[in-house]
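pls design
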C-alpha cells in the first residue's frame, strides 16, 4: 500500500504552488514541486550553453542532474551541484526555457522516476502539470486548478512588484499565453485535467477558499 498522493495540476499562476505548500504544511505531507525539476534542467542547460533544441543533450542533462531540496529558513531551497539556485530558477528566462525543455519526451522520461521517488509516508502533495495523468495516475485526490490568463498575469505582476521588479502586464500576459500554449499542445503529457480530477477555478477566489475546497476532498477520499 503506497502512501497517498494529492495531485495538484494546472497552468502557471493558478495558485497551485501556494495551495500545494499550504496543504503539505497542514497535513504534514512531503511536497514535490515538479516544475522545479524542469526549471533546474533548463538552468543547467543554459549555464552549460547547451543547444536548447537538442533533445539528446537535454535528456542527458536531466538524467544526470545533481540536485536536492532543502529546508532553509522555512523555505524549500533548490540546490544544484551544491549551489542554492532557488532564485535563479524563477527568472523569466529560465521559465521560458523550462517550458521548451519540458516538451521533450526524453527529458520527461528522465525525470519520471525522480518524481515518483518523492512519494513517502504519511503522504505527498505533488504540484505540476501531469501529476494526476502521468506521474501519479493512482492519486486518490486530483485537483485541476485554473484561473483566467489575465488574473494569472496580475498575480505574477504583484509578486514581481513585491520583489522590486517592474514588468509590463502585457508582456507577462504574452509570456503566460505562450507557455500555456506550449504546455497544452505538446504531445507528451500535455497540460490537461485527468479524467477523475476535480476542476477548481480560482479566478476571483481567495486562497483560503480554495484550500478549504481541497481539504474537503482530502477528507472524503483519504
Ligand atoms: O510550475 P512551473 O511554472 O514551475 O513549471 C515550469 C515549467 O515546467 C512549466 O512551464 C511547464 O512547461 C513545465 N512543467 C511540466 N510538467 C510538470 C511541471 C512543470 O511540463 N509536471
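designed seq:
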Amino acid at each position: 500500500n503506497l502512501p497517498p498522493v494529492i495531485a495538484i495540476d494546472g497552468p502557471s499562476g493558478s495558485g497551485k504552488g501556494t495551495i500545494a505548500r499550504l496543504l503539505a504544511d497542514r497535513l504534514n505531507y512531503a511536497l514535490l514541486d515538479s516544475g522545479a525539476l524542469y526549471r533546474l534542467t533548463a538552468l543547467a542547460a543554459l549555464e552549460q550553453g547547451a543547444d536548447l533544441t537538442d533533445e539528446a543533450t537535454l535528456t542527458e542533462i536531466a538524467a544526470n542532474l545533481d540536485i536536492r531540496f532543502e529546508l532553509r529558513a522555512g523555505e524549500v531551497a533548490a540546490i544544484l551541484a551544491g549551489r542554492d539556485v532557488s532564485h535563479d530558477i524563477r527568472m523569466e528566462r529560465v521559465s521560458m526555457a523550462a517550458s521548451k525543455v519540458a516538451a521533450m519526451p526524453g527529458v520527461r522520461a528522465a525525470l519520471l522516476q525522480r518524481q515518483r521517488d518523492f512519494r513517502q509516508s504519511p503522504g505527498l502533495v505533488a504540484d505540476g502539470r501531469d501529476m494526476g495523468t502521468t506521474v501519479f495516475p493512482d492519486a486518490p485526490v486530483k485537483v485541476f486548478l485554473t484561473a483566467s490568463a489575465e488574473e494569472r498575469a496580475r498575480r505574477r505582476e504583484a509578486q514581481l512588484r513585491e520583489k522590486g521588479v517592474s514588468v509590463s502586464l502585457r508582456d507577462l500576459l504574452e509570456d503566460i499565453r505562450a507557455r500555456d500554449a506550449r504546455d497544452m499542445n505538446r504531445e507528451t503529457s500535455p497540460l490537461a485535467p485527468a479524467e477523475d480530477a476535480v476542476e477548481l477555478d480560482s479566478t476571483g477566489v481567495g486562497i483560503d477558499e480554495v484550500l478549504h475546497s481541497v481539504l474537503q476532498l482530502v477528507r472524503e477520499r483519504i
